[in-house]
Amino acid sequence: MTIFDVTAPAGTDPSIQLGPRPGVATLVVNVASKCGLTPQYNGLERLQERYAGRGFTVLGVPCNQFGGQEPGTADEIAEFCSTTYGVTFPLTEKIEVNGDNRHPLYTELVAVPDAEGYTGDIRWNFEKFLVGPDGTVVRFGPRTEPEDASVVAAIEAALPA
Fold first, then answer.
1. Which is the catalytic residue, given 6, 35, 74, 152?
2. What is the per-residue pLDDT across 3-43, written as a single tens digit (0 to 9) for each?
3. Domains identified in the chain and CATH numbers
4. Which of 20, 68, 77, 89 places its Cα 20 to 30 Å from the Cα of 13?
């Protein structure tokens, strides 16, 4: 099984294909609207705007498992993101990223170590996984800003030729 075999969570717009897919670099991020890290939406949107035409997308995955910081419905979350941060990248339905009801996408992702060697449960909102066009995955911690040099370098290295 590869990351591309996992069915991604549904989204608010059924016309948008969600989830990592071959040939596209996808930055998968568990997001929350009422978190101290929520301003990371700005950097995520800038990455989307900068690289979307080059085979890249951000995929926001709302999750309410960390301090109840994503309490809204899928439509409320999408409205907040669009209105407050100008988000244009796709958002999935709200899912669980840890525990017995962990979505299969995150079952695959949490096995990947970050730069410090950490594997396992998602630690907080805004943990990031760059899934390359070939299925390779690079993990970044929640406090790593979307436009951090390490994230940008990984995206640029993963962009389809």
1. 35
2. 888 877 887 666 666 788 888 999 999 999 999 999 999 99
3. 26-158 (3.40.30.10)
4. 68
